[in-house]
Write a structure and sequence with these properties.
- The complex is a heterodimer of chains A (about 240) and B (about 300).
- The longest helix of chain A has 18 residues.
- Chain A is of the alpha/beta class and about 240 residues long.
- In chain A, helix 6 packs parallel to helix 7.
- Helix content of chain B is about 75%, strand content about 5%.
- The termini of chain B are far apart.
- In chain B, about 45% of the residues are buried.
- Classes of the chains: A alpha/beta (about 240), B mainly alpha (about 300).
- The interface between A and B is medium-sized, with 23 and 17 residues.
């Protein structure tokens, strides 16, 4: 296995407030890795550091190449970041959202890709002209995922996809992500409040505590250890 | 008698549509910048005046014929808009919007000063590319200048609509305007999109200026009343609605023209206060305009 993503001693701050105090983690190609922890532990900031939406220091490498610059550069390097709270263009249509997903690509197969991606979400083709803002929360989350796929990402970053969704929808969402991981070899780094579903869907996990990695291990081990579950994961 | 009255009325409507097309073009420029940068560009009118002087210089001093000068002026205005954003607006864009507003007011004064210094305050004549002939359609006498104005503004609006609706760059422009954070995540270079928006707005302004000059004469203050009408049109249609700006512009043009002729005490001198009244009434009754979406603030 090759190291797809490597973070070494990454620090990040919002103005005067330091949110990450030196996070190191790796994601291998084809892996689903979850990042867990309480509110304010730095989960979202970790993803933001990777996609360059927060000012950061330390090194972040994608396939051994340092990621530099803002989110435009990260997107061009192959990072697709689905932020917390859906991250769709609510004023634009479903199809326009999908086309924007392919914005960084220069080839002319976007139409084929819309069809290919829509195979995972059959309703999207029929409702291509609908404004994204009129979709349900679950559908918007699916659209955000589909849009990320349109960029043919090397790394998918998911921030709290379960937020505000019904349990059944959350399970469907993670099923789709796993499906993509198996079928297309999609590498995923997912931040979740819902540790139970995140551990069930990932092979490894990192638990953050006040901006540092408190512990890491295989998802199965973390799930199996009752004291870890109680003190870090809250279930 | 009745037929003559009707023909008279239609004449007023058509010439109202012509001035309305000009308001619409400038209103659309205001809307494009408001949607992306979030401010009213108070220097939009002066930018248009400057571009019109460029056209005048090419035609009168350098002997260019009209349409090549028209095209060259559009190219110049696009570059002018882009550079204005990159050099003047972008450094103050972060933080308080009031800073940007004040900078656009500063630009208004600076460009006006430059125009007076460069070309003096003397009014100049820019001839119409459409001539001074008229046509008679069933008793309604219409000048070619009005027909040409309507066609050119409609043409430029349709071209822009095609650009925004059907091209990748247009989609990126819209994405950058409605949700810049998200747009950056999909790889759109948002600051360049804002600069492009300023360029397109300057092109619209230049078109408005070049169509205005033949009928009112080219002078450094030429676009100031037009900018007020464009404000009124944009507010009427909805400051965030490009479609609203066009409809608002045409409606205002017709309204002002008809009122000016048929309401005794208004006349040509009171058109400007009527436009201000329109702004006031719309802001009181329906602040988001006819086609705008009310701003929803989530708590």
């Amino acid at each position: 296995m090759t190291n797809l993503l490597e973070l070494d001693d990454v620090q990040a701050r919002y103005g005067a407030v330091q949110a990450l105090h030196g996070v190191s983690l790796t994601v291998n190609e084809g892996e689903v890795v979850s990042v867990l922890g309480a509110n304010g532990a730095g989960k979202t900031t970790t993803l933001r550091a990777i996609s360059g939406t927060v000012s950061r220091s330390g090194t972040i490498e994608l396939f051994g190449k340092t990621l530099k610059g803002g989110p435009e550069a990260a997107a061009r390097a192959g990072v697709a970041h689905v932020p917390e709270g859906r991250g769709t263009f609510v004023e634009l249509t479903v199809e326009e959202n999908l086309r924007l997903g392919a914005y960084t690509r220069r080839d002319r197969t976007v139409k084929d890709d819309i069809k290919r991606v829509s195979e995972y979400f059959p309703w999207m083709l029929e409702r291509g002209g609908q404004r994204a803002g009129t979709l349900s929360g679950g559908e918007q989350q699916m659209l955000a995922l589909a849009r990320a796929l349109m960029s043919r990402p090397r790394l998918l970053l998911l921030d709290e996809p379960s937020l505000g969704l019904a349990p059944m929808i959350v399970r469907e969402f993670f099923r789709t992500v796993l499906h993509l991981n198996e079928n297309e070899g999609l590498t995923v780094l997912v931040v979740e409040q819902d540790a139970r579903i995140a551990l069930a869907s990932s092979s490894r996990a990192y638990v953050l505590e006040v901006g540092r990695v408190a512990l890491t291990g295989s998802s199965a081990d973390l799930q199996g250890d009752e004291s870890i579950r109680r003190s870090y994961l809250g279930y | 008698m009745l037929a003559a009255t009707f023909a008279d009325f239609m004449q007023q409507v058509v010439s109202g549509l012509a001035s309305g097309g000009i308001y619409a073009a400038l209103a659309l420029a205001l809307v494009i910048i408001h949607r992306s940068t979030g401010v009213i560009n108070f220097s939009q009118g002066e930018m248009a005046t400057l571009c019109t002087y460029i056209a005048w210089t090419l035609i009168v001093n350098h002997g260019w014929s009209y349409w090549p000068a028209f095209a060259a002026t559009l190219a110049f205005s696009f570059a002018f808009g882009v550079v204005t954003h990159r050099v003047v607006i972008r450094p103050v864009e972060r933080g308080n919007l009031l800073r940007v507003v004040i900078v656009t007011i500063g630009l208004l004064i600076a460009i006006n000063g430059f125009v007076v210094w460069q070309w003096s305050g003397e009014p100049q004549a820019l001839r119409s590319p459409f001539g001074t002939d008229t046509i008679d359609i069933g008793g309604v006498v219409i000048s070619w200048q009005d027909v040409g104005t309507i066609l050119v503004t409609l043409g430029i609006v349709i071209l822009l609509w095609l650009l925004f609706q059907f091209t990748k760059i247009g989609l990126a422009l819209r994405a950058a305007a409605v949700n810049p954070t998200e747009a950056r995540l999909v790889g759109v270079r948002v600051t360049w999109m804002l600069a492009l928006g300023w360029g397109l707005a300057a092109v619209l302004g230049a078109v408005a200026g070049m169509l205005t000059a033949p009928s009112v004469g080219l002078d450094p203050q030429m676009m100031q009343p037009i900018l007020i009408y464009a404000f009124a049109a944009a507010v009427l249609g909805g400051i965030d609605s490009p479609f609203g700006a066009v409809v608002g512009g045409l409606a205002l043009g017709v309204l002002l023209n008809v009122i000016g002729v048929y309401v005794d005490f208004v006349g040509a001198e009171l058109k400007l206060p009527v436009a201000l009244l329109v702004i006031l009434v719309v802001l009181l009754v329906r602040p988001s305009g006819i086609f705008g979406h009310p701003e929803v603030k989530r708590v």
